[in-house]
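Students often ask why we bother encoding 3D structure as a string. The short answer is that it lets us treat folding as translation between two languages. Here is a chain of 162 residues written in the first language.
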Amino acid sequence: MAKRAGRPLQLFILIEVKMKNVLKMLDEEKAVNANKMLAAWLDQNSVVDKDKTNDNENMLSPAEKRRRLLAKKCDARLDLHGKTQAESQEALKTFFASCHEQGMEKILIVHGKGNHSKEGNILKTLCRNFIEQCSYAGENGPADADEGGNGATWVILRNKNV
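And here it is in the second language, the structure alphabet:
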């Protein structure tokens, strides 16, 4: 009988150890999943460790810098919907100057597609002309579909020090 009384206790201890191992594995799996989710979010939102970037930025080739900027989400956004040409022109001047002063790298201008205008896409033309003339503006192009597609333009700003 003494042997039988000890056996359930051994089983209980064995089950308890296995349960602890399973819980530990689940916690490790949760941690791995959380790290994967965090890494994916950081990749998607182009969050960069500024301490590392400042040191490494100078070591990147121009092509690598360009790829990084093209992949980056825009730092700021200006929506010109409903504005007149004069209001849009003034908003663009203020927006570009402010973004450049703050050291932003990439911005988005939402000008619309011109579907509701009798004269066509006046604001898009205005934006294109402004970007061509603006000393802060560098490379630019149409936004991705989720940011406005042909109704928006991204602009990479020139370095503040240049």
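Translate back mentally: The longest strand covers residues 137-142. Keep this in mind for the problem set.
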